[in-house]
Design brief:
Layout (H helix, E strand, L loop, with lengths): L13 H7 L10 H12 L4 E7 L4 E5 H17 L7 E5 L5 H12 L2 E4 L6 H11 L1 E8 L1 H10 L8 E7 L6 E2 H6 L15 E7 L7 E6 L2 H4 L1 H7 L7 E4 L6 H6 L2 H5 L3 E6 L5 H11 L3 E4 L1 H7 L14 E4 L6 H11 L3 E6 L5 E4 L10 E5 L4 E5 L12 E6 L11 E2 L3 H7 E2 L2 E10 L5 E6 L4 E3 L2 E3 L1 H9 L4 E11 L3 E10 L9 H14 L8 E5 L12 H8 L2
Parallel strand pairs: 1-11, 3-4, 3-5, 5-6, 6-7, 10-11, 10-12, 12-13, 13-14, 26-27
Antiparallel strand pairs: 1-2, 8-9, 9-19, 14-15, 15-16, 16-22, 17-18, 18-21, 20-21, 21-22, 23-24, 25-26
Helix pairs in contact: 2-3, 2-4, 3-4, 5-6
Length: 550
């Protein structure tokens, strides 16, 4: 399969990969037909999706099963008046109907808008209005149904609401009855590569969420994610921990995995419990696992020796910067080296630790050769090794398939980050002499104190090695002498909450001085019960900065 889309598939070493990794882009590419239906023809009985939930249910879908079910789903959606270019929002948690719906919408040329089940009425109204959403497919539970129903009077573009169960409320369509009675599917006119296929509402730390629009070539960008970062093959059983409402689901539960002929494993659960996740890895003999550092932090607090994790061959980590202490503990307990990666909702993996590399704990890895990337100073010149620079993607030589098309209906916002053939990520890093990238922070999060540039992540990493610290955020606060000083806002572990005070502050400050360069230590420390976060879990440093300046 991959030979159809890559000039070269197998690489001897990292240099070979960097020099010769090239994606071939077919005309009118459509992942649902050109990959999934092709697998159904070539290997109909190969297991594609293994779904289980916290109630003990289990369903296995082969590639042939997925073709049959997605054809029925596509025909059903067409019968509801959904067609090319129509916007359809999916609020499906980890239900297997998510995969039916995504592939079906690809087949009819509609636009998939994955959404989290955490959305309230206000969030749904904003999204429906901003994107002219025509239909909503949702899990039929009372909370989600209630929020959608509350939003409908202020969402005139929404013509159909479809429930996958368990409940089918009044006025809602029944997904399963619909697909079972659907007429034979007839493929409509082909899409163009430039048509919008997928759109995410991505919440920043300020303002309303942006609409990140991806074209039909976007899945091709995830070949590097699945094949060369997750290191998958036809024998892999891969589990990425992510709700389907987030971009990480497209990274780890869909495109790159099926390009690689791997089996996608889905554990549908209401509440994350580390012991349950470890039990799933043991029971189903998961071979490849990807999760954000938070999940690994919780898992290593369990007694890992209680679980047989010998099936695990490869583990990747992304979503937030990796604290080296997590890497070292997981390696000690399992013998597995965590391979870090980095990217955005606007991209696929842009920086990664690939199979031919020895990971450096805390480093994101090297630039993905699918992109033409650089680190630049504020005046636009490329920085030297060891210097801080913004991560940018250059498009003057070629337009990478994984890069987003635009911020939908917002040319001004698009122009702010994407101009002069450069996409500005807004993230700052530095490069060591081996070409490995080290995350510093967002451009507006970097602290300038007494002539030093201090990245929040490096201080947060030092803080997280102290047993008192469960979670923390580093920001800069104004200072008459130094311009800015480092402030740490800390959530304490329950064992240390009674010790909150000057003595513990000094202990934590001294710990940071010993763990990293002394000038980076937080001169201001505040203990809080929780950190302000966006709906997607990003720490809202802007809110912390505002509070600190009152």
């Amino acid at each position: 399969m991959l030979e159809r889309f890559l000039e070269k598939v197998q690489f001897e070493n990292l240099e070979d990969f960097k020099k010769n990794f090239k994606v071939k882009v077919p005309e009118n590419f459509n992942f649902a037909y050109d990959v999934m239906d092709e697998w159904a023809a070539l290997k109909p009985n190969k297991l594609a999706l293994l779904w289980t939930n916290d109630k003990g249910e289990e369903i296995r879908f082969t590639f042939a099963d997925l073709k049959r079910e997605t054809d029925k789903t596509a025909s059903y959606f067409q019968s509801l008046g959904i067609g090319k270019g129509d916007m359809v929002m999916l609020i499906l948690k980890r239900r297997y109907e998510f995969w039916f719906s995504v592939l079906a919408l690809h087949k009819i040329g509609a636009v998939v808008i994955p959404a989290t089940h955490l959305l309230t009425k206000k969030d749904i109204v904003y999204r429906a209005t901003a994107a002219d959403i025509k239909a909503i497919v949702a899990v039929g539970d009372d909370l989600i149904i209630g929020h959608v129903n509350d939003a409908l009077p202020e969402s005139p573009s929404v013509k159909k609401c479809i429930s996958v169960g368990p409940s089918i409320p009044a006025g809602w369509e029944d997904f399963h009855k619909g697909i079972e009675s659907a007429a034979p599917f007839v493929r409509p006119a082909k899409n163009s590569n430039d048509d919008i296929m997928l759109m995410y509402f991505t919440s920043g730390t300020t303002g309303n969420p942006k609409m990140v629009a991806h074209s039909f070539t976007y899945p091709l960008g995830h070949i590097a994610t699945g094949k060369y970062w997750h290191n998958l093959n036809e024998n892999s059983l891969h589990l990425t921990v992510a709700d389907t409402g987030w971009g990480k689901a497209a990274w780890g539960k869909l495109y790159g995995q099926w390009f690689s002929e791997a089996t996608v494993f889905v554990y549908d659960h209401e509440k994350f419990t580390p012991a349950d996740m470890l039990a799933m890895i043991e029971k189903y003999q998961i071979t490849s696992f990807c999760a954000p550092p938070t999940v690994f932090r919780f898992m290593i607090r369990e007694d890992l020796k209680k679980y047989n994790l010998k099936s695990l061959k490869y583990c990747t980590i992304a979503g937030e910067p990796l604290n080296p202490s997590v890497y070292e503990t997981f390696l000690q307990e399992t013998g597995i080296k965590l391979m870090e990666g980095f990217g955005q909702t606007e991209t696929t993996i842009t920086i990664g630790t690939f199979p031919w590399m020895e990971p450096k704990p805390g480093s994101m890895g090297i630039f993905n050769p699918a992109y033409d990337m650089d680190l630049i100073a504020p005046d636009g010149h490329s920085v030297e090794d060891g210097e801080h620079g913004e991560i940018v993607l250059r498009t003057d030589k070629w337009r990478p398939v994984g890069l987003f098309k635009e911020y939908y209906r917002d040319p001004k916002k698009t122009e702010e980050v994407f101009h002069d053939n450069i996409y500005h990520t807004g993230d700052v890093a530095w490069r060591d002499e081996d070409g490995y990238m080290w995350f510093v922070g967002r451009t507006d999060d970097v602290i300038k104190s007494s002539g030093y540039r201090i990245g929040p992540f490096e201080v947060e990493s030092a803080l997280m090695t102290h047993p008192a610290v469960v979670e923390c955020a580093i920001t800069g606060v104004p200072d008459e002498v130094r311009g800015q000083v480092v402030k740490a806002t800390i959530v304490l572990s329950k064992e240390y909450k009674s010790r909150a005070g000057e003595e513990l502050i000094k202990e934590i400050q001294d710990h940071v001085k010993k763990t990293t360069a002394p000038y980076k230590y937080p001169r201001v420390v505040e203990f809080v019960d929780e950190l302000p976060k966006t709906i997607s879990g990003k720490i809202k440093r802007t809110d912390i900065r505002k509070d600190g300046q009152k």
